[in-house]
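Homework help board

Subject: predicted structure for assignment chain

Our instructor gave us this sequence and asked us to write out the predicted structure in token form, then describe one feature. I got the tokens but I'm not sure how to describe them. Can anyone check?
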Amino acid sequence: MSSSLRTLLENPQLAQQLLSEAQTRGFVTAMAAAPHLINPSEWLAFMWGGEETSPFNSQEDLEVYANAIIDLWNESREALLEGSWHWPEGCSLDDKELVSSDTRDFAEGLLQGWQLSRDDWETIMPEESENNALLGGVLLCFSLLYDPENAMEALSQEGADGLAQFEEIFASVPTMLCGLTIRAYQLVNEDEAEA
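My token output:
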């Protein structure tokens, strides 16, 4: 994440109005993974709660923010399609809380972003398709990471060693998310070639 974006996110006047750094990363990652490219002008306002008016005091700050978000999107998209995406710094497991607050916030941001591209995902990977299992697996992982307490309880009820399963889930997310993005990219290109 660029220092200019981090500075804006840490600004006390903006911090209450913008998604946190980890939520921002999660949301932008969801947009970067989306099967069809969605123009940032269509989703940027969700970064500050969907309000029509941005919380920035100057047009210059808004432009710095928007450009930094687009740079982050480009980095994320490239890493996802290359299969080199990894958890951002600060996202980790935690002995006491199961996951770090950054992991939970990242998962929350990604799930929020996914809602904006949900129709595209459901069109390209319909419910009965083989690809839908991959999509469902990724969404389940992020849901579990967002709400780890209930996830541990559910895993324990299934007779699984919850903590070991959790470590496995966390470790598998980068591979699964890259695989999902690459598969969606292939499906979109196949559809366009047939059209």
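Reply (TA_rk): Your tokens look well-formed. For the description, you could write something like this. The mean pLDDT is 89. That's the kind of observation they're looking for.
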